[in-house]
Specification:
Distance between the termini: 26 Å
Strand content: 5-15%
Number of helices: 12
Strand order of the largest sheet: 3-2-1-4-5-6-9
CATH architecture: 3-Layer(aba) Sandwich
Structural class: alpha/beta
Helix content: 25-40%
């Protein structure tokens, strides 16, 4: 598909003239960065937003501007969900199921990046456990609340190009830990999860997609060392290889633009089981050049393998009609 928006488009430009009154969105990670901007942009168009955050006090402070943007008929609510704790995730999902309110769109925005080695409360490597397994349990548990038709939008990254998932050793139990490889594995898992979700839910009219928001300075990089930050800046400023695009840095409104485009504007039939970047569907690119999506991240059989492994790891089965 060809979009009328670009890498420079902002959330307000993408949603210009759109009335979201009566529509409900779930957005994870609304205590900083892209999650806050996504919530603000939706609220300003009349949507009702339920956000999740590990730290409710921090989220309340971060959302002050978003609350000021709430229009008549819109609403903002935040519930506690720590994606590094299966117990917290299940409590949050149970609360949403008990309330019974339906969602037009679920946006899995929260995540961590390039952490030093660590584990979640349940013993999973931090990035795989938080970025993938946390959303795997939360989203699957609340599928009954998603309207038909509906959308599921998962934030991945160009970092998925760094590494495929390692189904034999997802938590680096027997392989040396590398923070960027671990990030790449978790972001590939986000894309594969979208592919698997889409195959299970599209007959109901629910489509799932994954996306790269762009290179943005947010709290996601809080674990980066000064040396890593400097190397990233050098890479971004270096002349690109012939024919390859130059790395771009985006503002937060530009970074969240692809999220709201996928959630509201894009044709769901064209973005289902796809990888998006710069408000468009990304091409498959298995070269070393920047941009696009690696073919291993869109492989349906690989996605099913990851689904089965994820169910084993979290000790929970999610069966949907296919």
């Amino acid at each position: 598909m060809t979009s009328s928006f670009t890498a420079e488009s902002t959330t307000d430009e993408v949603l210009e003239g759109i009335d979201l009154t009566g529509q409900r969105f779930l957005v994870t990670g609304v205590s900083a960065g892209l999650g806050v901007e996504t919530a603000r942009a939706l609220l300003a168009r009349g949507a009702s937003v339920v956000g999740t955050a590990r730290d409710l006090a921090k989220a309340d402070r971060a959302l002050a501007q978003a609350r000021a943007a709430v229009t008549p008929g819109a609403s903002l609510d935040v519930i506690e969900v720590d994606l590094a704790s299966l117990a917290s995730i299940r409590r949050g999902a149970d609360l949403l199921l008990e309330r019974g309110d339906r969602f037009d769109v679920v946006i899995a925005n929260a995540g961590v990046m390039a952490c030093p080695f660590g584990t979640t409360e349940d013993g999973f490597e931090t990035q795989f456990g938080t970025n993938h397994l946390g959303h795997f349990v939360l989203v699957n548990r609340i599928v009954p609340l998603i309207k038909e038709p509906g959308r599921i939008v998962l934030l991945s990254s160009a970092g998925h190009r760094r590494s495929d998932v390692n189904l034999a050793d997802p938590s680096f139990s027997s392989t040396p830990y590398d923070a960027w490889e671990a990030y790449g594995r978790s972001k590939t898992a986000n894309v594969l999860f979208a592919v698997a979700l889409d195959s299970r839910l599209r007959d109901r009219g629910i489509r799932a997609t994954a996306l790269h928001p762009g290179g943005i300075s947010t709290e996601l990089g809080r674990h980066l060392t000064p040396e890593v930050i400097e190397s990233m800046r050098a890479m971004a400023s270096a002349p690109p290889q012939p024919g390859a695009p130059r790395a771009r840095r985006k503002s937060i409104p530009q970074g969240a633009a692809t999220t709201v485009w996928a959630a509201v504007v894009a044709d769901p039939g064209e973005i289902g089981a796809q990888f998006l970047e710069d408000c468009d569907v990304a091409p498959v690119n298995d070269t070393d050049a920047m941009g696009g999506v690696k073919s291993y991240a869109l492989d349906a059989d690989h996605a099913d393998e990851l689904w089965r492994l994820s169910e084993q790891m979290v000790d929970e089965t999610f069966a949907f009609n296919r």
